[in-house]
Amino acid sequence: MIDIMLALHSLFDQAQDLSLQTGAALFRRNDPVRAMYLNRSGAITLERPLADGTALTLHTAEGGMLVAEASLFADAYHCDAVASVPTVVARLPRERFIKLLGENSEASLSLVKAQALEVQNQRARIEILRLRRVADRLDAWIELNGIPMRGEWTRLADAIGVSPPALYRELARRKRG
Prior knowledge:
- 44% of the residues lie in helices and 24% in strands.
- The protein is an alpha+beta fold.
- The chain has two domains: 2-106, Sandwich (Jelly Rolls); 131-176.
- α2 crosses α3 (105-130) and α3 (105-130) runs antiparallel to α4.
- It is globular.
């Protein structure tokens, strides 16, 4: 799988790199889709602004991941892409990306495999979010992903749809347990 991912990444060898500071937008909802992006380092959060002023996190693209690849054939982006930490992305014009995919079957297969994995991950997340109790959500997430690394618990809370305080209460309960 790593070799195939390298094929997809190789499409960006001659791409222009953009540096984004924390909070900077790569694109906004309703902007026309003109490019594909590969996150070289950092993190880009795909967010949908809600009417109450909060943002719904749809996905976080970390280093080595494509950003908003589901928008490849859309006319406009359906969310905002915001750097959650200092980030470097490679930018490749959409038409060039599609042409290179057509010329490189390994890269095309890599994109298909990445999308299949994303579908699996989203299906699992939906099932986790259907669970009523924080304890059940936490158990299911850990069963699928293992214990998170130090500093990742807040992101886990977001992934399972609970507030960080609710997650920390559950962790404290387990520690006392």
